[in-house]
Task: structure prediction
Amino acid sequence: MAVSFTLSPAQQQLTKAARQFAEEHLGPLADAVRAEPDPLRRSLLARPVFEKAVAAGFLKGLIPAPFGGAAGDGVDAAILVEEWAAKSPDFVISMAGPLIALAPVYEVGTPEQIERFVAPFLADSGAPVAAMAFSEPDGSANFDAPPPAGGTLTVAVPDGDHFVVDGRKQWASHLPGWDGDGPDLMTIVCRTPGGISLLVAEREHLAGHVEVEEYLDLPGLAGCMTARVRLHGVRVPRANLLGQEGQGAALTRNAFVASGASIGAFATAAMREAFAVAHRFATTQTRGGAVPIIEYQAVADLLADAKGRIEAVRLLSWRALDAALSGDPAGPELALHAKVFGSETAVSVINDLVQVVGVTAYDTAFPLLRRLHEALAYPVIEGSNVGVRRRQLQAMLAAPGYDPLAASGLT
Ligand SMILES: Cc1cc2nc3c(=O)[nH]c(=O)nc-3n(C[C@H](O)[C@H](O)[C@H](O)COP(=O)(O)OP(=O)(O)OC[C@H]3O[C@@H](n4cnc5c(N)ncnc54)[C@H](O)[C@@H]3O)c2cc1C
Result:
């Protein structure tokens, strides 16, 4: 990103198109999701909107141009995430599966693998979904811990020119796919004889070998298809191994760099919507007094502090996503700041905005607590801040020769 903070005409157009799509389709979807109590039926509500997004070219917009897609730069990605997550963050998370699942394909895939694995997501119709099957029910923060103490429990046993995968996975969007027979593509983090490895299972390998144990009922990102599944006897050709056996831990960490940065944009979306609600309340409600409550200094201070923190997280997220997607060496550190600072700021800001509104906010029908429920997810998804992301920051800061100015390019 050149150092200009004015959106280009193309970015202004993207903002307009993304907002229009969100208002037309994602707002009504979010209302329908809130009204549906069953987690599976709720997640299936997204499918027709998914198809519209694919037809409008938004899925292709997630695939980088060198691999046949039409992705823009990191600021474009941040704009799209913010506009859509303002209406339905769960939809964005579900749709962004290929962003994480294909990242290791871009990094180490052979030309043949790239062509085969990316092809379903260049479609102009349908609703292709991908899952990055990393997290497991018994824990993920220590996924690279050596056995038998723990770590990744999903195993892939060599069998001729195949691996046979058995294990349980949880949390990744669309582990069951739309019909319970798996997504179009699942990148599986598993243990092979050579260590932690990544295998790509395609639909034909998964069908009949995915048992859904439970669809999870999330309080905030309720429209995500989030489940616990058992993979049993999934036969994946050796040709679907990404890179080398034992390379999977590093590839997995790299796969979550850009998605970590994107959490800052999700956090911005939740904060901006909450701010709009609280600001409207403060400028229009007197609560029985003589003046709108924004006339009280304490209320105005809460709003002003919230707005400043929203602006800070937005700019950090633009910078972090731009760096992460362009291969800037600052990307990994900035992505961690966007993830950790962005997610924790969102929880704090929205809690402050609840204080502005007062008890009226403590009603499910009032459009504020839902934003807190969304924000509460951000410190714990995409690698929890405590178990994963702060440890990554610790490792960077403790590394010999760490340069505090490098992330800003001021060396
Ligand atoms: C909507 C949604 C979408 C998701 N999408 C995906 C996805 O696409 N793919 C995917 O694989 N997962 C996904 N997840 C799961 C998510 O990425 C989690 O952040 C990930 O599983 C790690 O969780 P955790 O760190 O809490 O791990 P756990 O292993 O469950 O750790 C739990 C807690 O233990 C503590 N802890 C454990 N080990 C340590 C340690 N070494 N040091 C310090 N503290 C420690 C920390 O407090 C940590 O938070 C998703 C989850 C949700 C809700």
In short: Residues 256-402 form a domain with the Butyryl-CoA Dehydrogenase, subunit A; domain 3 fold (CATH 1.20.140.10). Residues 98 and 130 are 5 Å apart (CA to CA).
